[in-house]
Design goal:
This protein is about 60% helix and about 10% strand. The chain has a 3-stranded mixed sheet. It is mainly alpha-helical. Helix 2 crosses helix 4 and helix 4 crosses helix 5. It is globular and about 40 Å long. The chain is built from 8 helices and 3 strands; from the N terminus they run ααβββαααααα.
Length: about 220
């Protein structure tokens, strides 16, 4: 082979590698569709109902509002509603595009199970308002107490999702908890900082003994209190 042919082949190979790399990056950056978010929430609601939880599903438009969670929870009169607002929601796109494509559907279902964890706590009498009243918001110790309370609820919800992964997707446990940890680290802020608990869950591995998911979440939460 002469030098000219070799140079052409090398150039073609480099071009192909570059194209493959770009395609891979594009694939990794593809956000979830609204249908994927709905499917994840539907799975979580079905599981909650099977446990006897009074929980419903509602689909709304995200209205293009930044920071609006694509799967959230409303609760009133002893009932919960899992609300999917992924359509026209930049937060839904930003979050789902972070996740490894082959883990995306399971990750979204875990995110929905996080909300089921919140539902369980609310149905059992735990407070859930995340807005501190302005009249006391200037008092440092009150702010600190409030942040700890909200963080406890977020930690419990995350541990419900972890327990669900351990029970139903143990072969993907390490990869999925790593994705949860990566997302929490990327969007880290005091009231929702569950990084230490997720790191411990990662180290513990996918064990679940005979307890139900909520008992497992309680046990994991109690380990770091």
């Amino acid at each position: 082979m002469n030098k000219g042919c070799a140079a052409v082949l090398l150039a073609l190979a480099a071009s192909a590698a570059s194209a493959a790399s770009a395609a891979s990056a594009a694939s990794a950056a593809t956000p979830a569709s609204e249908a994927q978010w709905i499917a994840a929430a539907t799975e979580a609601v079905a599981w909650g109902r099977a446990q006897g939880m009074p929980i419903a599903l509602e689909i709304v438009d995200g209205n293009g509002l930044p920071g609006h969670t694509p799967i959230g929870l409303a609760s009133e009169n002893g009932r919960c509603t899992l609300i999917v607002s992924a359509s026209n929601n930049p937060t839904a796109d930003k979050l789902s595009a972070m996740i490894v494509p082959e883990l995306l559907d399971t990750f979204l279902a875990g995110a929905a199970m996080h909300e089921v964890g919140h539902c369980h706590r609310r149905l059992n009498g735990y407070p859930h308002n995340e807005k501190l009243l302005p009249v006391v918001s200037w008092i440092g110790p009150v702010r600190d107490w409030f942040a700890r309370r909200v963080r406890t609820e977020e930690a419990y919800a995350d541990m419900t999702a972890v327990a669900w992964v351990a029970r139903f997707h143990p072969e993907r446990y390490t990869a999925l908890v790593n994705e949860m940890l990566r997302v929490r680290t990327r969007f880290r802020e005091p009231k929702h900082d569950t990084v230490a608990l997720l790191e411990q869950a990662l180290a513990d591995g996918p064990h679940h003994a005979d307890e139900n998911l909520f008992a497992q979440a309680d046990a994991r939460l109690n380990r770091v209190r």
